Amino acid sequence: MLLAMTALPGRVETMQWNQNTPIDEVVSYPGFGDWGRLIFPADEGYYSGSTLGDLRLTWYSNIQPAKTVEIVNTLRERADAGEQLFYPIYSEAEVAADPWKADTGLFFFRGKPGARFAICKVTNPCLSIWQGPFTRRYTMEYFTLNNGIKMPMAGIGVFMMSPAEAEAAVESALRSGVRLIDTANGYMNESGTGRGIRNSGVAREDIFLVTKLWPTVYGKATAIDETLQRLGTDYIDLLFLHQPTDNWREGYRAIEKAYKEGKVKAIGLSNFPDELLLEAIDTMEIMPQVVQVEAHPYFPQTELKQILTRTGMALMAWYPLGHGDKTLIQQPVFTELAEKYGKTNAQIILRWHVQSGNIVIPGSKNPAHIRDNFDIFDFALTDDDMAAIAKLNSGVRYYTATPELIAAYATMELRPDL
Ligand SMILES: NC(=O)c1ccc[n+]([C@@H]2O[C@H](COP(=O)([O-])OP(=O)(O)OC[C@H]3O[C@@H](n4cnc5c(N)ncnc54)[C@H](OP(=O)(O)O)[C@@H]3O)[C@@H](O)[C@H]2O)c1
Does residue 405's CB lie within 6 angstroms of at least one atom of ligand 1? Predict the structure, then answer.
């Protein structure tokens, strides 16, 4: 069993990174030449809570960071209400002392690459022009895998999406700051996922890309290269065996080979029962790094977690929101906590996952949900909150594997993924 540890497995770290906001349209504003009316990119994370709060107008936040957050939050509300996005910088008292300041405010522009913003007097040309770019700061928690690789703890899954839907969702997610993408041969949308990655303009090395081999190709010598080709990449950050069909050992050896060749950076097992997981740990050369299983507050995988803790393996939760089950999402405890923290019920559930050590990949085609699902790193549930959620553990799962189902997967052929 090969276990190359360079960092403490399981360790969770918070990291931040900056990203310049892409800007691609200027709307002209009378009197300001090509300086635009205030328009935030609608598909960006500008109204996604902490992302927005963290948005730094670099020059301004250096002077007044708290004020910047206030401005941006106000802008969000006003944008959501359909107002023009102009924010007067000075308070009423400041304006009373200096009437010149009355119509001085902050304009935001959706402009050409290299965002620009300006402090202008509404009736006069801009007094000062500040050349962008906008810098937004994102926060993410990372799980250190048992081979030292750091994996983001929240991302997006594209199960049950057409290639075009996956393309749109992945692009939207990456533009909102998401950096973890989960797909599979079996979703037949890896090509769309690859296009979404390329459309986003986010560098490949900044993305943690996860996919899964389907049982019918476990023994196919070219399966991993074909997967790389569909995704349009030359490596996969984490490659799973999707199902524990009888030929899984052959599939595992293929992944191990790709791992040694550098085509795969981490190995995972999905839907494996404990006994097969233990067999893999005991008999295979390379220790798996991650398991992907159904997990949510109704079924928190308490027993499996004991094996994982012992081996430094991470749990990636599928159906983290119960596949959108409203009876789960609307449980009163989530509504109560959502009110307490100013978050949505879904965000509370996802935060519970992360604090339980689970990596989450909620699926969504809705850009607002995609942003919300990523915006869970600016608050923490208390021990009491976590205990209240733990009471929902009822041992109920949405999916039960049967021997017949597993056998059927072994012959379920993939359709072409376009
Ligand atoms: N390994 C496996 O065998 C396996 C099996 C199943 C899934 N998975 C992986 O796990 C991922 C997640 O599973 P899933 O997508 O089926 O289930 P899920 O993430 O638990 O739930 C997705 C559903 O929740 C809704 N939703 C998402 N964000 C929301 C929000 N903020 N507020 C309210 N509703 C929200 C979505 O609708 P909207 O589109 O309207 O947002 C969608 O209907 C999959 O995409 C896939 O990557 C793996």
Answer: no
Q: Exposure pattern of 142-167 as b/e (b: 16+ CB <10 Å)? A: bbbbbbebbbbbbbbbbbebebeebb
pTM tops 0.85: no
CA distance 176 to 320: 20
Residues marked as catalytic: 187
Superfamily name and number for 147-409: NADP-dependent oxidoreductase domain (3.20.20.100)
- CA-nearest residue, atom 25 of ligand 1: 324
Are residues 247 and 409 in contact, defined by beta-carbon separation less than 8 angstroms?
A: no
The closest of 176, 203, 165, 155 to 353, measured between CA atoms, is: 155
Q: Which atom from ligand 1 is nearest to the alpha carbon of 159?
A: 45
> pLDDT of 320-334, one tens digit each?
999 999 999 999 999
CA angle 389, 392, 397 (to 5 degrees): 125
Q: Return d(Cα 241, Cα 271) in angstroms, integer.
A: 9
CA 326 / ligand 1 centre spacing (Å): 12
pLDDT tens track for 245-291? 999 999 999 999 999 999 999 999 999 999 999 999 999 999 999 99
CA torsion 87→116→366→78, rounded to 10°? 10
Closest-lying ligand 1 atom to the alpha carbon of residue 182: 47
Tell me the domain boundaries of the chain.
22-133, 147-409
Query: Which spans in 296-364 are helix H?
Result: 302-311, 326-329, 332-341, 345-355
The atom of ligand 1 lying closest to the CA of 240 is: 1
| Protein residue closest via CA to atom 38 of ligand 1 | 364
Which among 364, 372, 373, 396 is the best mutation to test ligand 1's pocket, defined by most ligand atoms within 8 Å of the CB? Answer: 364
Query: Using a 6 Å cutoff on CB, does residue 270 contact ligand 1?
Result: yes
